[in-house]
Every structure is written in C-alpha cells, then in structure tokens.
Known about the structure:
Elements: E1 13-15, H1 23-26, E2 27-29, H2 30-47, H3 52-66, H4 68-76, H5 81-107, H6 118-138, E3 143-145, E4 148-150
Antiparallel strand pairs: 1-2, 3-4
Helix pairs in contact: 2-3, 2-4, 2-6, 3-5, 4-5, 5-6
Amino acid sequence: xxxxxxxxxxxxxxxxxxxxxxxxxxxxxxxxxxxxxxxxxxxxxxxxxxxxxxxxxxxxxxxxxxxxxxxxxxxxxxxxxxxxxxxxxxxxxxxxxxxxxxxxxxxxxxxxxxxxxxxxxxxxxxxxxxxxxxxxxxxxxxxxxxxxxxxxxxxxxxxx
Length: 160
C-alpha cells in the first residue's frame, strides 16, 4: 500500500524585529508583506503623471510590483520542490525588475517628490533577501551564481 502524499499549504513566515519589540509582535507573514507591497505599488502607480513615459513606467511597475504576491500563492501550492523553487524564482525576478522601475522613477524624476519611493525601495530589498534565502534553503544550500555552483560547507562534529 502506498503512503499518501500531502500538498500542505502553509504561510511562509518571516520574522522582522525592531528594537524593543516583543517576540509576539516580531512575527510577520510574508504573504502580508507582499500584499502590503503590492498595495503600495498600486498607490504609487496612481500618482505617476499621465504622460507617455509615466503611463509606460506605470504599466510595467504595476505588473512587476504586484506579481510577487500571486506567485507566492502559487509557490505555497507547489507540487514539488522544483516547482516551489521555480515559483519563488519568478517572485525574485519580478522584485528585481521592480527595483529597476523604482530607480527609473527617482532618476527621471517622474514624481515631484520621489523620496516617497524610499520606503518601497527598502521593503523591496528586504523582500528580495527573504525570497532569495527561501530559494537557497529549498535548494538545500546550493547557491548558483553565474557559471559557478557554490555549496554550503557541511561540518561534522569531531566528537560524534
């Protein structure tokens, strides 16, 4: 008789601590962070000018900045480890694309006061770190950079 396999969907938790915060207040759900990020992207897009450039950047930013949220949901329902890695890799790719659109908004500038994007830029950096770490963990510590494959060292306790 075969053992049943279960596809369990659970929240991906991320712990975010600020000085003096209690452990209960420190727990933060990655899905909630991605939801807040997507909502803030939508709010930012709505403030961009109604020009050719503003509309182009708005459309691109809207797609890349909101995409990590549903892709995270797809990753939670992944059918295999490889599927999970693939879905989280899409999240990472979209967050990196969002980085470039936000930088462009500041560089042009497309907003009269582009400093309002600073919080989004910081949150996006944090999300990139979380997603990249999740991918490394799912790969079992293997990190692939360019043409190099670096594996995490495994140290065995000499006393054992």
